[in-house]
Amino acid sequence: MKNGVILAILSSLVFSIMNAFVKAVSLSIPYSEVVFFRSIIGTILIYLIMKYDKVEFLRKDIPLLILRGVLGSLYLLAYFYTISKIPLADASILVHLSPFFVIIFSVIFLKEKISKKTIYLLPIVILGAILVIQPFNYSTYSIYALFGIVSAIFSAGASITIRYLSKKHHAYEIIFYFLATATLVSVPLMWNDFTIPTARELFYLVCIGSVSLLGQVFLTKAFTHEKAAVVAITRYIGIVFNGMWGFLFWTEVPDMLTVLGGILIVTACIVQSWKKQKITS
Fold first, then answer.
1. Could you give the CA distance from residue 6 to residue 269 in angstroms, rounded to a whole number?
2. Which residues of the chain have pLDDT under 50?
């Protein structure tokens, strides 16, 4: 097994552990406060890493760096809220819709062409999302699941800005702006609902901030060792990891419609990534 694939699997495992911590602490700590601790701890750590590696802050593209930070912040808020309300596996499936939103946004904002094969796959993804959300069975669950879709949209928007910024800026600088902005955005949201964490909850929050940065490092290194398409495909194992934690700790068992919807989404995304791999190989 190649190093890039191993690193991609490790990143998915680490992020799934972070999600489990988020799920656990969200039972008593507001999701906006979880985002705050995740972001401020990550900001401090990435700043120290930048100092150690002597990575400088550039004075260009600051508005776009801030936009990337805002989009990333909104993604975190929507995703953590989703995790706090629905099963981990379901939330993970929905956020993995982001690759197809990336395709749509790249056509709109980057003027990239969309292939006919991608157009054929989009209805499959939409059907998969419908099966997971189950809007025909209206309930509060359906509303919470919609936030998972929103998190995927914001994640895709952030990815588009990263695609542009990565040509001129160091990855650490982009990550710093993301986490620093998320810290600032989460402050007013948690101001009236701030809950003083217990020792255990504080431990969870510190783990979330530390583990998420470790996952980001693994993911960044995975992209440097392996083709982006291979890494993208490998990361879908994260759905399995999230489902495993959900079952072990919260006895979350997805129904058949969710499983079918997840299979459709993952299959369509893997086919899309595989097509790109075939083109670039």
1. 20
2. 277-281
